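Notes from hallway chat w/ T.B., transcribed later so I don't forget. T.B. wanted the structure written out for a chain they're using in a teaching module, and asked if we could keep both sequence and structure tokens in one place. Agreed to drop them here.
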Amino acid sequence: MNTVLITGCSSGFGLDIAKHFLDQGWKVVATMRTPDDSILPASENLRILPLDVRSDESVRQAIEAGGPIDVLVNNAGIGWLNALEGTPMDVARDIFETNTIGTMRVVQAVLPQFRERRAGTIVNVTSAVTLKPLPLLSVYTASKAAVNAFTESVALELEPYGVTVRIVLPGQAPDTSFGKSAFARIQGAGGFPDAYAEFTEATIARMREVAGPSTQSSDVVEAVWRAATDPNCSMRLPAGADAVALVSAAG
């Protein structure tokens, strides 16, 4: 029986990914900063562990406690939407520490067992926004684009050891708690700068007006499942109609 370790399982994509792998008969190590045993159905194939991707020790303990794993899904991340001028550098550091360095940290921690077994799959969840520049998303986009570049490069290092690396790029998913959490974080950091108020309001309104079909959680689950189980799939897997369109346009 295969085992998957998933980060960021407390809600949204991560929670649904964990449920899907359980339904498919996998052993699931569902990790989150604050474990909550009530959010997933009880199963002998499920372990819920604490994991904070910003902490070396937390990651080490979770990987060790999770035991041998076959697939790692790096889903944990935080959002941000604001002008660069309204982004405190401590917020930017936290975004990169979570979205970028956190992904690297977990990958690095799992590599010894993958390399020694000459097998394993790593799936990094980033964002389709990395394929099309948008205002107010410069810091968030940079943190996810860095993961794309990291993934493509580290894949070359790991190929000789039988380790497969994939990227899943979700499109816009307004029905998840991700956006709400981002706005709460923005308000806690002082909100949007007054000088950009008119521009911000117009930009958000325009985004809502031109938004096409949004990404559903099921789209991301399907893409992650394919990345984890289909050895012949491409390295980059879009999730959602809008993401598919962007990947096609990017060639």
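Follow-up for T.B.: The chain has one domain: 3-250. Might be a good example for the class.
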